[in-house]
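User: Could you walk me through two proteins back to back? I'd like the raw sequence and the structure tokens for each, with a short line separating them so I can tell where one ends and the next begins.

Assistant: Of course. Protein one, sequence then structure:
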Amino acid sequence: MDFAFGSADEGFRAAAREWLAGHLVGPYAELAGRGGPGSEHEGAAARRAWERELGAGGWIGLGWDRAHGAYGNRAASLTQQVVWAEEYARARAPGRVGHIGENLLAPTLLTYGDEAQRRRFLPAVARGEELWCQGYSEPDAGSDLAGLRTVAVRDGAGYRISGQKIWTSLAGEADWCFVLARTDPGERRHRGLSFLLVPMDQPGRIEVRPIRQMSGTAEFNEVFFDGAVARAGHVVGGEGAGWRVAMGLLALERGVSTLVQQIGFAAELGEVVAAAVRGGALRDPVLREQLVRQWAELRVMRWNALRTLGAAGDAGAPSVAKLLWGGWHQRLGELAMRVRGAAAALGPRDWTAQAPYELDALQRLFLFSRADTLYGGSDEIQRTIIAERVLGLPRVER
């Protein structure tokens, strides 16, 4: 495909750069460039305010399909979406807490939702006023999502939801959760599932428990549903269509969102290279070769993401992308420690009883990236999807 920036794109770039420079001030400037992977939940109040700032500027939902109308966001071409992502990363703007609603829920509602659902939820996401989390994985159904046990029982004009979700990003900050649950107990595996939109503010019916990771952060959470209520009108795609909707949502985790992720990866790689220069690790030919390989592989991932932007219906594209970036990011974390040698074992500050577990950004990167080949579907699951849906190999009986 022809992917180049034209004069309109450069004008859009200038507008984006000017807006970011004028609004990344005060508490937002303090958040800029702070923390590392998995720290998006920190400074929650300022991050929520930043989402509203982005919404007021029309910078949320640039890539949304406008066939059903606009919802408070500005129109932007594919190249302009990439321009915005590049400028946002260049400005080291705060990590987003609204990305799940913007990049996953909204396109799903535009594809599978009805007009009432789009009118109710999309403007609030575009204004940065409502945050979302994703209720998919469970303790016994992580990568094997079809084995989930959370149930939703019809109760008058709505549903009562009972069960547990785990590894739920930003659940403590979210106002809503899209939950995959079983609404037909007579069916098994991927049949009889529904995709429900559930308000999180239900004391006594929804409990969120942060999961403290070895990086010291707690972006992920356990979520317990004990008779939580969802309206019948908030079932996306209709009852029993949950698997189709859920798989459609997972397919959205490619394309521009993948390119945005890679811009962040490039910034992290730059920090690792800078650490190698400062510490003299570049004199080691093996480490130098590994850094060059990381750079080359990132370029390959970029071109693969550009290729898949036009690959509608490519069932294996999300799995291929996940295999590529999960292993790459994990190797980057390992390199971040290797270039620093023994100094990588030391924290940025001396131990104190008040702050016994201080890590710098590269140490967080290393520890957080250990999970990259597990969350979002383990490497083994991704290879199975590619084998069955792309290569046509015999399916494994489950």
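----
Protein two, same layout:
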Amino acid sequence: MPAAVALSACQGFSRPKAGSDAAALQERIAGTVVVKGDETYETWREAMIWQRAKANRRPDMIVQVESAGDVQEAVRFAAANGMKVTTRCGGHSMAACFLRDTGMLIDVSRLDGIAVDKAAKTAVVGPGVFCRGLAERLAEDGLAFPGAHCGTVPISGFLLGGGVGMNTNAWSSGMSVFAVNAVDIVTADGRLLRASAQDNADLFWAARGGGPGLFGVVVKFHLQCFDAPKVIWGATYVFAFDALDEVTRVMDEVVPRLDKDVETLVAIAAAPDVPFGEPPEKRQRIYLDVNAFVASEAEGRRKLTPLLDQPLIARAIERIENRAGNFDRYYSDNEASFPQGHWMGDAVWVDDPQAAMAVLKAHMPECPAPRATPVLLYMGTNPLPDAACSRIARFYLAYYMEWDEPAEEAASRAYCLKVFNALKPVARGSYINEMDQEGRPQDIHECYSPQAWKRLAALRGQWDPKGVFHGFYGES
């Protein structure tokens, strides 16, 4: 996989001004330092965010690192100069929670190495590795990992927040982070440590789910891998909007009876030939997508049969059946749903999808975003191992909104906040990686169990007593 191109290599970028603090740091690292006020700063800042909705927050300094040693130097510099630190990799946070108005942003996107041990079924991976790139490399050795559903997401923030990933019900106790065996992490005092169940176990506990509130910079992930499926056998069924209640009932009552390696989701999306402004019953379509991660076509057919035998399937107005897929196709299909636009989203865990979908259905006619897609994914009922990642339910419900012009943002954000406030009575908390941290900072604690939230705060005091790292969005 080719290495990412450093922004400093592009025409127009210059080194920090001689004699400045930034120049002193630049002399000690191989990476690149950019300071607020530099003529290139805004280009760098906007490049930190994957989408066109650019959060209006500006850290004092951006440091793009080239090695773990660079990270250590950057953290030490920040601590010595009273600068709070945040970290980004792919900038895929819907809320761009890594952007703060003070301190240092460390960009780890160029730490993108992969080393695979085929016999042990393990891999050591840099935070800048994209999930698609990881899948391609592992496939060379007949292995797989429960990466993000979108291949352009790097593994770092995805895993640190828990990771709603592919086939997690079968591979990793419901969340991808539970297939992480250890991390190499730079702590607030600039040390590089290995954290695992055996070494620095409390730091490992925090890294498995601490997300944007983690008090350290992870520079390597030690992953447990799995035998790759021979085929991802699947189907997609499209229904008219009036089938939503029945589709949701099938998700609630039938899908949990399928084998664990069958992944099923529902998406509600606009038909391409119906103009914006039409009511949902005319404009929206229901997409039921199912994929079995299996050893053969025959096994895939058998595992999908309980779902495909449902009377609902006969109501499909479009269908793609007997799909013999692979990771490339899986990622290509999912990535097509995320063009380069202005985006925001929010998400909750729910045990009762029918109650949750009723709330969404009531609010959808008010949606101001020209493209808005709720997604309901069955997660399973695996008990979670002891880790900061401590909130999950039978189903994951996310709502993604996309618009075209900056002036449309405020209405979409207000609508999203209204919907998710209405969902609170049927929700069991939220997923830290995709919740609206800007709109609902007071609810961030609900991404964690009360016990985990309390322990995270205690461990932050232990590992970062001087407050080198920013806390969660809305905290200091």
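The chain has a mean pLDDT of 94.

Let me know if you want the two compared in more detail.
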